[in-house]
């Protein structure tokens, strides 16, 4: 049930390939402010048995292009680089993270967007 003053946020799960390696990183971001992401990351770490970290600044543009040159261009042009607060998970765990969030009743299934192939 939705209240009038309650915000509806979409949680995004994106997959990124690490530079020069066959490793993948899953980024979960877009959580409402009322959630304690450190606790969610801790529970995910126990459930998924992989490296899970809470990050205050995740630069999506840098991950998308796999280069630090994005940072240099933004610095030269004077643009502010956009960052998000989220959870960084080692490996392709998009489906497992979605199942975890729905099972623990943190976010409803229709408010989770999975990006990637």
Question: What's the gist of this structure?
Answer:
Helices cover 32% and strands 26% of the residues. With 117 residues, it is an alpha+beta fold.
- What is the CATH homologous superfamily assignment? SUI1-like domain
Helix and strand pattern? EEHEHHEHE
Specify the biggest β-sheet: 5 strands, mixed
Mean pLDDT: 80
Helix share bin: 25-40%
* CATH-assigned fold name: Translation Initiation Factor Eif1
Described by the principal axes of the CA atoms, the overall outline is globular
Question: Would you write up a description of this structure?
Answer:
The chain is built from four helices and five strands. With 117 residues, it is of the alpha+beta class. The chain has a single domain, classed as Translation Initiation Factor Eif1. It is globular. The N terminus is likely disordered.
What's the topology here?
Elements: E1 11-17, E2 24-29, H1 37-48, E3 52-58, H2 60-65, H3 69-77, E4 84-90, H4 94-103, E5 112-114
Parallel strand pairs: 1-5
Antiparallel strand pairs: 1-2, 2-4, 3-4
Provide tags for this entry.
117 residues, alpha+beta, Translation Initiation Factor Eif1, five-stranded mixed beta sheet, 26% strand, globular, disordered N terminus
């Amino acid at each position: 049930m939705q209240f009038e003053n309650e915000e509806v946020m979409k949680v995004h799960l994106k997959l990124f390939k690490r530079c020069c390696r066959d490793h993948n990183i899953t980024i979960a971001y877009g959580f409402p402010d009322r959630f304690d992401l450190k606790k969610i990351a801790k529970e995910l770490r126990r459930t998924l048995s992989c490296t899970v970290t809470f990050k205050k600044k995740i630069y999506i543009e840098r991950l998308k292009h796999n280069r630090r040159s994005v940072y240099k261009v933004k610095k030269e042009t004077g643009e502010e680089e956009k960052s998000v607060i989220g959870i960084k998970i080692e490996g392709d765990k998009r489906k497992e993270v979605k199942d975890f969030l729905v099972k623990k009743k943190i976010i409803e299934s229709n408010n989770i967007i999975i990006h990637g192939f």
